[in-house]
Design a protein that fits this description.
9 strands; mainly alpha
Length: 561
């Protein structure tokens, strides 16, 4: 792991190289800042691609997708986060990374830099993989060829997901080959510019193979024979094999732009931090499992609520940092004790929920069609005002940076759970061994691995041979990188997540809406692409381009619903 090294010079170089997939040809010859692409150092370009991609992983995995996967909820400015009230999502940022990455690759070829070529191919695969994971069909074959001047180069057709997935798997094989030499055989490698691995070619080679394993598994429900053959092949290759080899990126913390999103060092009001709340789905499962990550991720509630007549006839009072309300007060005000199995119906029936958990209290998924800052009888029900009756993120997440606030791009725990899933299908290996290794790796990644031996013996944690358990622990381990949990949930339906009472649709979404830039500038190809989406009972009011329409990857699989 290395610190992000974002410099003003890198930002300056990047400003020249940001192009969208459909950019006007005349713009390609403009160079207002005087940087010459034909001589720029590939190290500078690669560093820009790595840092921007790493930050994008957190932006999504700690952002709206964390709400989708019920890791977190927000109690203010929350409609998109909690209720899937999404708008069009632009992909121009990813294509900007790809354009810079392409120039870095071309310069690396010109200079004979095989290490840099391999890294660029890994990043190309990773970024295109993220695009098709989020949206579905997308420009791929012609996406970065605007300078060639053909019609398809200027207005690129959308490739099918099958083409993209198979294409990036092939590119990863080429990358792994380029990165398989001894470090002494590569030239002009800058350890500082490589903010993922410090110039370690072997680790990059293992990342390439591990990514191929991820994408083969992504296809396991849609193309099971192809996936099985690919998984078996990758299990015989060198993969990420320790926590230290995981692909992580830390933050500098020198400004709000290069700090953890919930930090309070650059937000003196702490308003943003206060909006994040643990979702009851994750919080109470961690509590049931006696999970040591619980206290690392979340703080105990400041003032718990107790339903008791201890201080009657006073109906509602705070004594020694505990709030007491009487049963009569509860009944007279149409209140009901929170229960995970019944809360949705209780809200629909008009009850106000009261959570009496004494240590940790979460925010239920989609609990309100409005901002749920008044949840659990909050005495200060204002946007960004905080809530003493609901838990916050732990103080760890107030920091601008620390050793655990990482962009978890590809942690070792994910490799272990992929191997456990493969073994469950009978594709090689021992499921229990890989499952246990994944649990231990995740605990180590969060600094609580001393608790592994006791935790792995707990009811619900000790391996029971089911796919449900593998995917549940992988879902837990994906905290702060919920995108991977989303992609897993779509193809397996696991864990079995249920919507709350107030989502935009009564189902978890499946994809991002295409952005307005593509609709306006590449309309013909956009309209052709959305014809390949399969509408569902939840997408009817959106037509084809809906967050609830099924992309090719999910069509015919009966997953997740």
């Amino acid at each position: 792991m290395k610190l992000i090294r974002i410099t003003y010079y890198l930002m300056f170089v990047m400003s020249v190289l940001v192009f969208q997939s459909c950019q006007d040809l005349t713009e390609l010859n403009e160079n207002p800042n005087g940087v010459e692409p034909s001589t720029v150092d590939p190290n500078l370009l690669i560093s820009t691609v790595l840092t921007e991609y790493g930050q994008s992983v957190v932006d999504n995995g700690f952002g709206n997708v964390a709400g989708v996967m019920q890791h977190l909820e927000k109690d203010s400015w929350s409609s998109a986060f909690n209720n899937y009230d999404w708008e069009e999502e632009e992909w121009s940022g990813y294509y900007s990374m790809l354009r810079t990455n392409k120039l870095a690759y071309e310069r690396a070829v010109e200079e004979g830099m095989e290490f840099h070529q391999g890294v660029c191919l890994v990043m190309r695969a990773m970024i295109f993989g993220r695009i098709t994971d989020f949206w579905g069909d997308a420009p791929y074959t012609y996406a970065l060829n605007a300078e060639d001047g053909g019609t398809d180069d200027i207005l690129p057709p959308f490739d099918s997901q099958e083409t993209i997935y198979k294409g990036i798997i092939d590119e990863l094989a080429t990358a792994a080959s380029l990165l398989s030499k001894e470090s002494t055989e590569y030239s002009n490698v800058s350890a500082e510019a490589d903010v993922f691995y410090g110039g370690d070619a072997t680790k990059w080679m293992k990342l390439a193979n591990s990514l191929a394993l991820r994408f083969y598994m992504r296809l396991s429900a849609k193309l099971p024979d192809y996936a099985e053959a690919g998984v078996k092949k990758m299990l015989a290759e060198s993969l990420i094999s320790s926590v230290d080899e995981g692909c992580m990126m830390s933050y500098i913390g020198s400004s709000d732009d290069d700090s953890w999103p919930s930090n309070t060092e650059y937000d003196s009001s702490s308003s943003n931090f206060k909006r994040y709340k643990p979702c009851t789905t994750l919080l109470y499962r961690l509590n049931e499992l006696n999970d040591p990550r619980l206290g690392t991720w979340f703080n105990p509630v400041e003032i718990p609520i107790v339903v008791s007549s201890l201080y009657a006839p006073t109906e509602d009072t705070v004594v020694d940092d505990v709030r007491y309300i009487t049963p009569e007060y509860l009944a007279a005000n149409s209140m009901m004790i929170f229960d995970e199995s019944t809360f949705k119906q209780a809200v629909e029936d008009g009850y106000t929920l009261v959570d009496t958990n004494s240590v940790y209290v979460g925010l239920p998924p989609s609990v309100s069609s409005y901002e749920p800052y008044d949840y659990n009888l909050n005495p200060n029900p204002t946007q960004g005002g905080g809530n003493v009756h609901v838990s916050y993120l732990s103080d760890l997440f107030k920091d601008a940076e620390n050793e655990y606030l990482l962009a978890r791009i590809f942690p070792y725990s994910e490799v272990c759970f992929l191997k456990a899933e493969a073994a469950y299908y009978g594709w090689g290996g021992v499921a229990e061994d890989s499952y246990d290794a994944g649990v231990e790796a995740s605990l180590e990644e969060w600094g609580v691995d001393d608790d592994f031996s006791s935790y792995i013996a707990n009811d619900g944690v000790a391996f029971d041979g089911t796919l449900d358990q593998i995917m549940e622990q992988k879902w837990i381990a994906s905290f702060t990188n919920a995108s991977e949990a989303w992609f897993d949930w779509r193809r397996t339906g696991l864990p079995d997540l249920q919507t709350g009472p107030s989502p935009l649709r009564d189902a978890i979404p499946l994809r991002f809406y295409y952005g307005s830039d593509e609709k306006e500038n590449n309309a013909t190809n956009y309209l052709a692409a959305i014809e390949n989406l399969e509408t569902t009972s939840y997408s009817s009011s959106d037509d084809n381009d809906s967050a609830w329409s099924k992309m090719w990857l999910l069509q015919g699989t009966d997953e997740p619903w």
